[in-house]
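Hello, quick one for you while I still have it in my head. A protein chain has come my way and I'm curious about its shape. Can you walk me through what the tokens say about the fold? No rush at all, and the record is pasted right below.
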Amino acid sequence: MASIPRTVFQHIRRIQIATNRLAEDLMVGAYHSAFKGKGMEFEEVREYTQGDDVRNIDWNVTARTNHPHIKNFREERELTVMLVVDISASSQFGTTKQLKSELIAELSALLAFTAIKNNDNVGLLLFSDIVEEYIPPKKGIQHILRVIRDLLVFEPKHRHSNLKVALDYLGNVQKKSCVCFLISDFLFPIQKKELAITSKHHDLISIHILDPAEESFPKIGLVNIRDLETGKMTFVDTSYLPTQQFHESKVSKKKNTVKQMMEKLGAGYILIKTDQSYVQPLRRFFRLRRIRH
């Protein structure tokens, strides 16, 4: 790993220890049952035993031996997991114990460690309104540590966000089907066409990151608010009821729009808030997905 400040290295180690333990204790079984392999491949022929599926009987071997034999298959397990992460300026917002970007780094680390424990490949695509960085899918602990490092310290060149750019790039570099975790606060315009194309070719799961202050304005009177992506300053009376209602309605509408869009496309949707544990929403999603499958 390239030379990095000691404080950043310590942060990476803390995330590695915490998320690696979570992946081992809580996530691996749920993840494995939620994400099936690419198919089934032939493994061996063995003698039939009571309870075996008769549809798998190998009639040629059975005829030669005068004893029923079945074909055994095993799941072709290895998957590719792509973490497509929005690192535009709005990810630097946070009113709880951590910024959205810090939560995203921990969450991504948990998904990455869980994936490699299932022998899956993990790649990373960081985007703003350009593709800021692309790390091709690989395995191994050093690879995952690089992914975590870049999630923590990579400094984007641009402040705005553009989902179309990210999904178009993913379509160009990832020709084979993958599990795509799209992690963002979804403050950009929703790109229905690109999302539809991505969900058709890949297993798309959107993880919506939300800070509680984005849902409900803190009532602190007249404040000067700066848009992190545009830099524009605006005076807002946060105690004014119509202002609160307008803001809360706008956020609620965007949240519902993203959720309904994903459901319509057959893609996954997980809402995670910065003041809550991200483990339970993930496990709940994996459990429901396993039941549906």
Remarks:
- The chain is about 45% helix and 25% strand.
- The radius of gyration is 23 Å.
